[in-house]
Amino acid sequence: MTEGLDHDGSAQKITRVSIFLVLIDMGQVLRTITNAQYGWSPDSSDAMAWVDIVFVITELLEKVIPRIVFFLVAVVLIIGALADTFYVARIFKHGNVRNMLPVKILRLLVGAIVTTLFTTVLEWVLYPMECLLENEFAGHTHTDHSNPGHKSLSELLHGEMAPCQPFATPEIA
Question: By C-alpha distance, which of 72, 82, 170 is closest to 124?
Answer without folding.
Answer: 72
